[in-house]
Amino acid sequence: MVRIYLMNSLELIICYFIIINLISFLSMGWDKRKAKTHRYRTPESVLFIQAVLGGSIGSILGMYVFRHKTKHWYFVIGMPVILVLQIALGVCVYMAPFEILFR
Question: Which one of 3, 8, 18, 60 is at 20 to 30 Å from 71 when CA atoms are compared?
Answer without folding.
Answer: 18
